[in-house]
Design brief:
The protein is mainly alpha-helical. The chain is built from three helices and no strands. The radius of gyration is 20 Å and the shape is elongated.
Length: about 110
């Protein structure tokens, strides 16, 4: 039985590519952890009452910083994907963080 199925073969990775992949993974992991922490702070900030405008401002600033960092991480991930150092699933965390930050800035924004 002769199957004419094309199989995709991966090229063997050199030590330099493996080190590049590891460095990219560490950098993106740290950036994604920082983005997640900023979003956690943004969601934890709730005004104590109608007089607490600072808490709303701090939540907005933190969510905006998280959005900027998520977009930066997505762009950096895209560069690493183009270099074939990482896999496509690395784009998922920045996309989810950006979506969450936009939600926090719009629909889930704290009100006075």
């Amino acid at each position: 039985m002769n199957e004419t199925r094309t199989m995709t073969r991966q090229r063997p990775r050199s030590a330099a590519q493996q080190m590049g992949s590891a460095a990219c993974a560490v950098l993106l992991t740290l950036g994604n952890l920082l983005t997640g922490y900023l979003l956690l702070l943004a969601h934890a900030a709730e005004p104590a009452g109608p007089w607490d405008g600072e808490a709303v401002a701090h939540a907005d600033i933190t969510a905006a910083l998280a959005l900027a960092l998520a977009v930066s991480m997505a762009l950096l991930t895209w560069v690493f994907l183009r270099a074939e150092w990482l896999r496509r699933w690395w784009l998922v965390p920045p996309a989810l963080f950006a979506f969450d930050a936009v939600l926090r800035l719009t629909l889930l924004a704290p009100e006075l």
